């Protein structure tokens, strides 16, 4: 029961407590760190091993990010624009024509989108669900449920952003299992994906080439 209260805290706290400039991540990571310690574990138990951070891991992370950018830019965004009337994406318009803000936001993307979100969702929540679900399909179900939570976590975006987050959760959740729980790979993949997306927004190429 306490484990799932931690999950609720990690998913809800960032939206309910208006801490400045992503500092909620520090508070949540501290909670998760001490909770893992309480259970006799550490971040390395969810895949953040020093030996896992290799050139191969970096290469897989970058290549998988490029593949996901291609999917979003060439398939997902054109498809929803074809099927629906989609409002302009404005959440990160503040970085346009402002290089210093772009750099600051990319830095936050590596720390929040890459490191924080992957530790919380793929590293902790997905592993927790996999352990608690009694089924031969526990891996698939845990990936699906974690991805749905990841989509809801992005509720501040429109429905198309939420769906994109669910799909991204599925992508990184499957990637995490395919690389034997080496969390560094989805961390790098997620961070590189966010970086490329921010650059596309900055150059007004997001959603089209």
Automatic annotation (TrEMBL):
Protein name: CPBP family intramembrane glutamic endopeptidase
Transmembrane in keyword set: yes
InterPro entries: Rce1/LyrA-like_dom (IPR003675)
Enzyme class: hydrolase
Positions of transmembrane segments: 6-36, 57-80, 100-121, 133-153, 159-176, 183-203
Keywords of this entry: Hydrolase, Membrane, Transmembrane, Transmembrane helix
Transmembrane as UniProt keyword: yes
EC id: 3.4.-.-
Domain CAAX prenyl protease 2/Lysostaphin resistance protein A-like: 101-195
UniProt source species: Terrimonas rubra
Recorded GO MF terms: hydrolase activity
């Amino acid at each position: 029961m306490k484990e799932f209260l931690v999950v609720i805290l990690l998913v809800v706290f960032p939206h309910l407590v208006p801490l400045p400039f992503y500092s909620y991540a520090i508070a949540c990571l501290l909670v998760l760190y001490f909770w893992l310690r309480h259970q006799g574990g550490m971040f390395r138990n969810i895949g953040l091993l020093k030996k896992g951070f290799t050139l191969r891991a970096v290469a897989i992370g970058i290549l998988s990010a490029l593949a996901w950018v291609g999917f979003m830019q060439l398939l997902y965004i054109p498809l929803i624009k074809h099927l629906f009337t989609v409002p302009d994406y404005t959440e990160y318009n503040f970085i346009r024509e402002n290089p210093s803000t772009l750099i600051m936001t990319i830095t936050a993307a590596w720390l929040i989108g890459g490191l924080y979100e992957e530790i919380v969702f793929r590293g902790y929540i997905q592993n927790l669900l996999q352990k608690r679900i009694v089924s031969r399909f526990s891996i698939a179900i845990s990936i699906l449920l974690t991805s749905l939570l990841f989509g809801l976590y992005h509720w501040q975006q429109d429905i198309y952003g939420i769906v994109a987050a669910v799909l991204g959760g599925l992508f990184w959740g499957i990637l995490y299992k395919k690389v034997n729980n080496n969390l560094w790979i989805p961390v790098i993949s997620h961070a590189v994906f966010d970086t490329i997306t921010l650059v596309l927004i900055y150059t007004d190429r997001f959603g089209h080439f």
